[in-house]
From TrEMBL:
Family: Belongs to the ligand-gated ion channel (TC 1.A.9) family.
Organism (species): Drosophila grimshawi (Hawaiian fruit fly)
Domain named Neurotransmitter-gated ion-channel transmembrane: residues: 270-540
Reaction catalysed by this enzyme: chloride(in) = chloride(out)
Main location: membrane
CDD domains (UniProt xref): LGIC_ECD_anion, LGIC_TM_anion
Pfam families reported for this sequence: Neur_chan_LBD, Neur_chan_memb
Cell compartment(s), UniProt: Cell membrane
Protein name in UniProt: pH-sensitive chloride channel 2
Length: 546
């Protein structure tokens, strides 16, 4: 009796266990009559579906195949590159597609032809590959009340997941030709957990990357873009995939951006050209006008430095030289050069001695201006050498031997001659025609510092003439350049000899410091603009042709 009771109890327990098992794993029969939520609940029930395990497919030989994940990206907004932070922002719609055979409901619900759609709840109930942005600094899924995630399950088990993201991505910028640069910024997608033996990522065959037609950038122009598939080898030195080493699938798309230079041309380059040109106004001011020329030079230099510093605040501090810095250095040199030119001509203007010049050309004027003391010492040496030659020729002239280029030394009585005094007509006689200056009668030039020995004056003083030596002495009449007088006058007429006439008659002329300063300023008015044009030619050729 007790034995039959025990057996009946065991049978009842078995029946109860079978009924509990049927309740825990719901059947898929009559799935056409089920709602989408009921069908998904039965397909993803724990007795049939494991969210921690990836979909598994096998080859005919029984080998396990990796999951193929296909990606597509739609870019509908892109923010300008932030050069100081080396980053840019994108707003995009990412879409991935893969096949999960465990979610195939075509056989259990043949009348259901449309895919099952859902949002966050559906996404949380199925397995999804973990894909991350490898070069992100910050990212998030967009949404107002709920995250913008759309999940679709087709009757054959194809899963499509789309989500809207906002991402701040790192982009290394090459600023060597800033602001005429071109940048290439990439967005990199990689598998986080599964290596290539478990998961392989691909771009969709048709239009993997698309852009919103209304997409515009304020500072850049989107030239083109391209996509790429590659494999990343991760080891202990690269832990962006956690602590797992191996080969991981990676997708990337790169945008080619050209910077629009209109803003920089109007706000930096053209104003800097005008500032440099304004600094040249000082060349039209007199060299002794120190206050206006110093004010003009310093104000233009400080204005340009302020303009350049405001433009460079948005750039990172890099170790190489940028094109904008070359322009800044060139313009600074021109502005600073105009100030140095003023200091130079102002120093010359304040000199007290005239400058001897052999010829009226740039080389001789600059050489005489830069080394006046050297020329003065040379002229004194010539004076002493000529006096020595005169003493040696006295004996030879008395003996009747008249050598070539003989110099006459005569001891005259000492008479005081005042500056500007005109010699009497009886004491002077006109020189022969070969000795006369072009288009002028020969006169004796007497000032307080012009030491010139005229043979005609010697002859008139003694009343003798040596016809055999007159031509030689006249041809070699000695004139030393005047280094201290401010003007040379014709004592008969009070006229001033021109520099060309002085050079024609003596081979030397003198320029006042004021004349040299004015001459340098007049040359600077053409040299500085011409040099700046040449600098611009080289600069813009390098920018657009190299």
């Amino acid at each position: 009796m007790y034995l039959s009771l025990i057996i009946s109890i065991l049978l009842n327990c078995l029946r109860l266990g079978q009924s509990v098992t049927d309740v825990d794993c719901p059947t898929l029969a009559n799935s056409d009559s089920l709602s989408q939520t009921q069908l998904i609940d039965r397909l993803t029930h724990d007795c049939r579906y494991d969210r921690l395990e990836r979909p598994t497919t096998y080859t005919e030989a029984g080998a396990r195949l990796p999951v193929d994940v296909y990606m597509r990206a739609y870019i509908y907004f892109m923010q300008n590159l932030e050069a100081h932070d080396l980053q840019f922002k994108i707003y995009a719609l990412l879409q991935m597609r893969f096949l999960d055979p465990r979610l195939n409901f075509r056989n259990v619900s043949p009348k259901r032809l449309q895919p099952i759609l859902g949002e966050q709840q559906l996404r949380d109930s199925i397995w999804l590959p973990h894909i991350f942005l490898a070069n992100e600094r910050d990212s998030s899924i967009l949404g107002t009340t709920e995250k913008d995630i759309l999940t679709s399950i087709s009757p054959d088990g194809t899963v499509i997941v789309s989500w809207r993201i906002k991402a701040t991505l790192y982009c290394w910028l090459n600023l060597k030709k800033f602001p005429f640069d071109e940048q290439h910024c990439s967005t990199v997608l990689e598998s986080w957990m599964y290596n290539t033996s478990e998961l392989v990522m691909h771009w969709e065959q048709k239009r993997p990357i698309t852009y919103d037609p209304a997409l515009h950038l304020t500072e850049f122009v989107l030239q083109n873009s391209w996509s790429n598939e590659t494999v990343i080898n991760a080891d202990l030195s690269d832990l962006r995939h956690g602590a797992f080493a191996g080969n991981y699938s990676s997708l990337s798309f790169t945008v080619h951006l050209n910077r629009v230079v209109g803003f920089y041309l109007m706000d930096y380059f053209l104003p800097s050209m005008l500032i440099v040109a304004i600094s040249w106004v000082s060349f039209w001011l007199q060299a002794d006008q120190a206050p206006p020329r110093i004010t003009l030079g310093t104000s233009t230099l400080l204005t340009f430095i302020t303009l350049a510093s405001a433009q460079g605040k948005t750039l990172p501090k890099v170790s190489y030289i940028k094109v904008s810095e070359v322009w800044f250095l060139g313009c600074t040199i021109f502005i600073f050069g105009s100030m140095v030119e003023f200091a130079f001509v102002n120093t010359i203007w304040r000199r007290k001695h005239n400058v001897p010049v052999r010829k009226l050309n740039s080389r001789h004027i600059l050489k005489s201006t830069l080394s006046p003391h050297l020329l003065r010492r040379r002229s004194h040496a010539r004076s002493r050498s000529f006096s020595g030659i005169g003493r040696q020729t006295d004996a030879s002239s008395l003996s009747g031997n008249v050598p070539f280029n003989n110099y006459l030394t005569v001891n005259l009585p000492i008479n005081t001659i005042r500056e500007g005094q005109v010699m009497p007509a009886t004491a002077t006689r006109p020189l022969p025609l070969p000795l006369a200056a072009p288009n002028r009668s020969s006169v004796h030039m007497l000032t307080s510092s012009n030491r010139k020995l005229d043979v005609t004056f010697v002859e008139s003083a003694f009343g003798t003439a040596a016809s055999a030596t007159r031509n030689t002495m006249a041809a070699t009449s000695m004139e030393l350049p005047d280094f201290t007088s401010n003007s040379t006058h014709n004592l008969l007429g009070g006229e001033e000899f021109s520099h060309e006439e002085q050079i024609a008659s003596t081979g030397w002329t003198t320029l006042t410091p004021q004349e040299i300063a004015i001459w340098i300023d007049s040359r600077a008015r053409f040299v500085f603009p011409l040099a700046f044009v040449v600098f611009n030619m080289f600069f813009w050729t390098f920018v657009y042709c190299i």
